[in-house]
Write a structure and sequence with these properties.
8-stranded parallel beta sheet, binds acetyl coenzyme *A, single chain, 3-stranded antiparallel beta sheet, TIM Barrel, Double Stranded RNA Binding Domain, binds magnesium ion, 638 residues, 36% helix, 17 helices, alpha/beta, binds 3-methyl-2-oxobutanoic acid
Length: 638
């Protein structure tokens, strides 16, 4: 069996310089940094098939829309298309006045000159020059010692300054300068400071303004890259704080971070780096970039947002962002990608679903009282804040529980099932999902619900179908019976206050127009009920008596069809509001042999929905009676 080589013979640990004076662990970040998107440069240079300029333009426009004010658009000396992209931005008038275009160049004279040609005429430009400063690069790549490396940076900063002065005057551009000691996190920090001091001194020594209007933006951007992430984020934060506290004229520097994700900690490194004193972050939207990518600016921005601080970038329509990124880079987004992945707001597992369902109920109650603070189990942000719907929040498979299933029934059908009915229906769903081994979609669940409870149209009909009914008070046989306040059925007796405006007199159970009966239901007045029902497809009239319509109907089922059932549990609620309000009624029926007190056994649940409360209750009885008949071969008396 192959074994990993002894790592101590292959790798040596990064040796951090002790920095006991660090203060960043006690800091908090309450404000967005300056953001720079390098999607079109660092992101683009990492693609097997770099973006076309058309794709880059689409991406650029979206970056502007999101709110980026600094966008690195290319490495103009790399290719004609990189060069031309800058020209296209200019000629197309694509750059808003408040947006700075950043371009990257190495510290090489010919390439710096080409870079200036590319941006000539743009209004606001950041020239970004880099050279690697770490020992490995000094020795292996450049064959330069420390002094020569400083000199390389100094000489080319001087050239950038001169060209910036010239182009500001000749082409009306305002320039700023960014210098990156590439491989900063692998560079001895005091040496990185030494190089940057030399660069700053050279830049600030320029004798003419680099702004077209003669003003001078004094501040220089020092961008500190974790070109390759080689240590833990706390070590990076120490390096950043050391840099920030050692560099002279700190007020003349904007400290920028540029973290890569080789160890998977780019976000953490950038966040701790900000605590350590950085002002600005370079990264990409959704984290494309060399190797494991650049730091993801969606995650950073939404992390801030979820702490209650404005991020300064608008990701409220995350789907359009995803579309742009995927279509321009050709790379997919991982379904678990923070804030953006298809599954990041989804719970499959039962206990998560239960907690989320309860959380939503509590959240709704809080919001009704004017408190909108999001406080939800398992969901760090409201999915709606990034433009997601709640549909994806709960999805059902064999790991799911009753709470999640009830949530879907409530979302899809507006039915708030009583707890024990949830348990009963959960078993149905669990069986089906275990049989298929697959996720049950919302449609699968609502179909299963309708089938189980014979609800919602003739395709779901059971052996009994209620067609119409009439009730009559036994003591007051005329239709001019006195009207009394409407209360729930006699088994429960709770008032249906939200349904008080329902027309409770319609004795009609389906959409067919048989509206011949208009009598008022009276609480605690003995009733006689006559109903027309289909029994195994044959129309029958049944009748019975009781203390109200439900008990009368059960009496009729017993007397005329030999179905003997009684109510063990009953509840109802309103569905909808205003003139569209309906009643949803839930009943659990039990046959005589079942102990009504042993609620773990023997019940048949039913549900009915109707604008008429009596019809809703009767439909629920029929639904439950059908459930009972589904499990029996009972011959119904004809
Ligand atoms: C960490 C980053 O992301 S840095 C940005 C990386 N991005 C890119 O490289 C994409 C664009 N680059 C390119 O298209 C090409 O490298 C070009 C067109 C710029 C240059 O191409 P070439 O002239 O063929 O040089 P090539 O890249 O092969 O070699 C690099 C040379 O530049 C030197 N060099 C590399 N980086 C720098 C730098 N930042 N400053 C100065 N010199 C540098 C190397 O030491 C090497 O010198 P040598 O030829 O004397 O050994
Ligand atoms: C050019 C620099 C900033 C870079 O991309 C890096 O070091 O990762
Ligand atoms: Mg990079």
């Amino acid at each position: 069996m192959p074994m990993l080589a002894d790592p101590s013979t292959r790798y040596s640990p990064f040796k951090p310089t002790p920095f006991p004076q660090r203060s960043w662990p006690d800091k908090e970040c309450k404000k967005a940094p300056i953001w720079l998107s390098t999607d079109l440069r660092d992101g683009n240079q990492s693609l097997a098939n770099p973006m076309t300029n058309q794709q880059k333009l689409r991406f650029f426009r979206h970056l502007v829309q999101i709110g980026f004010k600094e966008i690195e658009v290319s490495y103009p000396a790399a290719s004609d298309s990189d060069f031309n992209f800058c020209r296209e931005l200019l000629n197309g008038g694509e750059v808003p006045d408040d947006v700075w275009i950043q371009v990257l160049t190495p510290a090489r004279a010919d390439l710096i000159k080409r870079t200036f040609e590319a941006v000539a005429g743009l209004k606001h430009v950041i020239i970004h020059m880099y050279n690697a400063t770490s020992c490995l690069f000094r020795e292996v790549v450049f064959n330069n010692n420390r002094e020569e490396t400083v000199q390389l940076a100094e000489t080319h900063t001087k050239l950038v300054r001169e060209l910036a002065q010239q182009y500001a005057e000749s082409h009306g551009t305002n320039f700023r300068f960014e210098y990156s000691p590439e491989t900063f996190s692998q560079t001895e920090t005091e040496y990185a400071v030494e190089v940057c001091e030399a660069v700053k001194k050279t830049w600030l020594a320029g004798n003419k303004s680099v702004w077209a209007d003669g003003r001078n933006e004094e501040r220089i951007i020092f961008n500190l890259p974790a070109t390759v992430e080689i240590s833990t984020p706390n070590i990076f934060a120490d390096q950043v704080e050391r840099f920030c506290s050692t560099i002279s004229e700190r007020e003349k520097c904007i400290i920028s971070l540029h973290t890569h994700n080789d160890r998977g900690c780019a976000v953490a490194a950038a966040e701790l780096g900000v605590l350590a004193g950085a002002d600005r972050i370079e990264g990409t939207v959704l984290g494309n970039g060399e190797r494991t990518g650049n730091v993801d600016l969606v995650t950073l921005a939404m992390n801030l947002y979820s702490q209650g601080y404005p991020p300064g970038l608008d990701f409220s329509d995350i789907f359009s962002v995803i579309d742009t990124v995927v279509e321009c880079t050709g790379l997919p987004i991982h379904p678990r990608h923070p804030y953006a992945g298809e599954l990041v707001f989804t719970a499959f597992s039962g206990s998560h679903q239960d907690a989320i369902k309860k959380g939503f109920e509590a959240q709704t109650a809080r919001e009704k009282k004017g408190n909108n603070i999001w406080d939800m189990p398992y969901l760090p942000i409201d999915p709606a804040d990034v433009g997601c719907t709640y549909e994806a929040v709960i999805r059902v498979n064999s790991q799911s529980g009753k709470g999640g299933i009830a949530y879907i029934v409530k979302s899809a059908l507006a039915l708030d099932l009583p707890r024990r009915m949830q348990i009963s229906f959960y078993k149905v769903v669990q069986d089906r999902s275990e049989q298929t081994g697959k996720e049950m979609t919302s449609k699968d669940i609502t179909t299963a619900f309708r089938q189980s409870f014979h609800l919602g149209g003739s395709i779901y009909d059971g052996r009994l179908v209620l067609k119409s009914f009439m009730t009559r008070d036994i003591s007051t046989p005329t239709s001019s019976a006195p009207q009394t306040p409407i209360l729930g059925p006699e088994q429960d007796g709770r008032p249906l206050s939200r349904l008080a405006n329902l027309n409770l007199s319609s004795g009609h159970a389906d959409q067919s127009p048989d509206r011949s009966y208009h009598e008022k239901d009276l609480h605690n007045v003995p009733k006689r009920l006559t109903a027309k029902i289909l029994v195994d497809g044959k129309l029958r009239e049944i009748s019975g008596e009781g203390n109200g319509p439900l008990s009368s109907f059960l009496d009729a089922l017993h007397a005329d069809l030999g179905i003997s059932l009684s109510i063990r549990e009953y509840s109802e609620h309103a569905v909808g509001a205003g003139s569209d309000v309906k009643a949803a009624t839930y009943v659990e029926l039990i046959p005589p042999e079942v102990d009504p007190k042993d609620k773990t056994k023997g019940g048949f649940w039913g549900v009915g929905v109707d604008a008429d409360i009596t019809a809703s209750g009767l439909k629920a009885l029929v639904s439950a009676a059908n459930g009972y008949l589904d499990g029996t071969k009972l011959q119904l008396e004809h």
